[in-house]
Structure formats: C-alpha cells, structure tokens
Amino acid sequence: SKGDYPHYMLKEIHEQSTALRQTLSMALTDERIDESCLGDNAANILAGIEAVQICACGTSYHAGLVGRHLIETLAKRPCWVEHASEFRYRDPVVPANTLFVVLSQSGETADTLAALRYARTAGYAASLAICNVASSSLVRESDLQFLTQAGPEIGVASTKAFTTQLLGLDILALLLARHNGMDAITEAAITKHSLKKACFAVESVLSLDEQIRDIAQQLVDKQHTLFLGRGVMYPIALEGALKLKEISYIHADAYPGGELKHGPLALVDEDMPVIATAPGDKLFAKIQANLQEVEARGGQLFVFTDRPECFTASERCQVITMPHVDDILAPLVYTIPLQLLAYHVSVIRGNNVDQPRNLAKSVTVE
Ligand code: F6R
C-alpha cells in the first residue's frame, strides 16, 4: 500500500535510505564486505577477472555507466557499458577473463535477458546479475548474483532500485579492487566512511523537497530542458533527464558539460532551463566553466552543488545547496533531488505519476 503517500513513487523515493541500509547489511559480515554476497563461488571467480562488460536498459543502464567509473577508479580494471538492446546485435570481441554483468530491477527485461543468454555462449569468463527480484530469470541464469534489497518497486519510474544498484556496483568495484591490490585499510575506510554513510546522506537531501517543488513550478510550462553533469555525474544527468521525460512528458536531454559547445549550446536561450549537478569533485572547475557559458547565453540555470559560494545566485542562476559527500557517494546523493524534481513536475501537470502513458513496469518483449 501507499501508506500516507499520495503516490508509490514518492513512497519509494523516501524508502531509499532503508533500502540502501538493507542492501549493505546483506553484504557485510563483521563490517567487511563478504564475497559470498555474490554467491558461494564468488571468491574463485572474481580472483580471475581482469575486465568487466555491463549490459542493461533504461535506468539500470545509467547505473551501469556510474559502475564503469567505480570499477575503473577503485578496481583499476577496464569496464565497458552498453545498452542490452544494442549489445545483443553486435558481434562483440570478448577480451580474456571478462566478467559479464547485467543490471535489472525486474530481472525479466527481454533485451537484458537476451544479452545474458548471448554472453553465456560468447566466451565471457562468468556472469553476474545485480537484480532486485530473487526469483527472476536473470538471477536464475547467471553464475553470480547480487540481490538488491529495495523491496517491491511499484512506480513505473525506477527510483530505489537504481540507488541500490549503485550500491551494488560500489560493492562489486571494491571486491574487484580487493583482488587487484587495494589494501585492507583503504577498503575498510571506504566501507566505513562512504558506503555506511550512504543511507544518511540520501536521507538528508529529502529535506530539499520544498525548494525542489518551487523549481518544479518553474519548469511545468517548459517544452525542453537540458541536464548537465561531468565525469561520474554525467550518468546522473542522463537519469535526471529520463525521469523527467517519462513522467512529466517534458522533453529532456542530457549532456556532459564539455560537449555543450559542440552543438547543444545552440539550443540555449531564456526558455531553456538547464539543470546541472556540480559536486566539488576533480571536475568542478570544468562544469563551472560550462555553466558560465550557459549563463552568458541567457539560459536559466538550476545548479545542485555543495559549493554554492562559487556561484552568484540570481533569478537566472538558482543554486540548491547539497551536503558535502565523498566522491563515491555523490552519484547516489545527487540522484534524489532529480527524482523529486521529476515527481513534482509530473504532479503539478496532473499526470499519472505511477503509471506514465505508453510505459510498462517490466518490459518482457523486445
Ligand atoms: C525508468 C525505468 C526503465 C527501466 C528499464 C529496465 O524509470 O524504470 O528505464 O529501468 O525498463 O528495467 P529493469 O531494470 O527491470 O531491467
């Protein structure tokens, strides 16, 4: 049931800190990630892995894009990510000792399942499903499994499944890192100071709700929006744009900030809201410069940042102050306000938030 919430989506947005806590506690034994959270044979399999190929669809694909950054940064292993619907029709060249990873809330997405079945015959070292449904086809047909503990997700727009997938990918990246030279002290510090803080960090940004509703009010009559992010935040811009388009029906595009001047800057004028995620990470100065270009063209900026002092707030540049979080947690934490933004725009426009037109919760046909 929806309890006191008007929509499942809002309930599920609010359930994220609990979902993250449950997902992490399932993976920990004595405060350390226990390899067996991926299955009994996980230690043997992961020890031989040198590269990762991720396949997924939609929101789960965006989680995969974040996963690439985590796996390359923490585990120092190459990682590729592809839409499952495209992967299955390529003739991919399979590098030696590559783990094939599928991400899925439902575990029944036809394209993702077809990609897994194809991969199992194509020479990948092993397969892993990061999935929210224990009894699903993906879980049954893969060698390893990580079960996100998000609980049932009813709203068609995926929220808590996505953030728990991100946590699952953090865990996978740390386990691969353990087999590739990361020392136990570093790993313990990341577990303690990042992963164990995820649920609090996610909880704390829910208090931005009123401010976000005010932004939503400014977006409801727009025809187009542009989401920007850099590095690991680019997939979060993609996810923010997907959430907005699927439940508000406002066209939303997402770009890495550095691509602006290669085309999309031509779209920017006073009718083009630009929503940016700008955490104070190693690319902060880069996104800041990109946003100055937007401002100079008269665009309407909404900036989510933990460095509000670096922006001059005005009617054309509205700044939403985010908490400081570890780089590893930024994708998780910046997702929440973008989910709330899409939610409020959809509600104000009078749409069916939980059942957007033309979409199904589980896409079991190609
Ligand atoms: C968007 C959304 C979809 C799904 C996609 C894959 O909010 O929910 O894009 O993410 O259909 O579904 P799963 O994760 O069940 O494989």
TrEMBL record:
Keywords: Aminotransferase, Cytoplasm, Glutamine amidotransferase, Repeat, Transferase. It is found in: Cytoplasm. Residues 42-182, 215-356 form the SIS domain. Its EC number is 2.6.1.16. Homodimer. Its main location: cytoplasm. The active site is at K361 (for fru-6p isomerization activity). The lineage of its organism: Bacteria, Pseudomonadati, Pseudomonadota, Gammaproteobacteria, Cellvibrionales. One of its GO terms (molecular function) is glutamine-fructose-6-phosphate transaminase (isomerizing) activity. It comes from the Bacteria. The keyword Transferase applies. It catalyses: D-fructose 6-phosphate + L-glutamine = D-glucosamine 6-phosphate + L-glutamate. Catalyzes the first step in hexosamine metabolism, converting fructose-6P into glucosamine-6P using glutamine as a nitrogen source. The keyword Repeat applies. This is Glutamine--fructose-6-phosphate aminotransferase [isomerizing].
